[in-house]
Amino acid sequence: MANVLDVAQYILQERGSMTSMKLQKLIYYCQAWSLVWDEEALFDEKIEAWSNGPVVRELFEQHRGQFIVASIDGGDSDNLTDDQKETIDAVLAYYGDKTAQWLSDLSHMESPWLAARKGVPDGANCENEITIASMHEYYCSIPKSEITSYAQR
Question: Does the global pTM surpass 0.85?
């Protein structure tokens, strides 16, 4: 199985440099839609419900202190299957042109992040996991008509 660094490296290869916050949110949506479309996780690393939205700590450790990320040490996009790349490409087709703040705001309105942060004050540190089950349940509930525009595969 690919890891989060492999996915991040592929995203950067396809879209170029971006803010660390945008990269983290794109990673989150790639995982979410992989659960729905491919019925499997794209990577094993857990996603945490940080105050600015979903974050994978292992990826954060790779870009800590960088506002703009150009590449990921240890990430190898060749570890991804064609199906995984197709899923990532579909996510990038829809979410890739959105701003980091737009993606963060969107994640804050969705139940997986909200449920993981239940009882945590706004802005407070939080390492609670956004579970695979909560992501799968939520994103499977979105009507197919709403996602067909960017999920054409």
Answer: yes
Each residue's pLDDT tens digit, 13-67: 999 999 999 999 999 999 999 999 999 999 999 999 999 999 999 999 999 999 9
What domain count does the chain have? Answer: 1
Instruction: Report whether 25 contacts 71 (CB < 8 A).
Output: no
Task: Give whole-number Cα distances, 147 to 30, 69, 143, in Å.
Answer: 14, 28, 7
For 105-134, how does the pLDDT look when each residue is reduced to its tens digit (9 = 90+)?
999 999 999 999 999 999 999 999 999 999
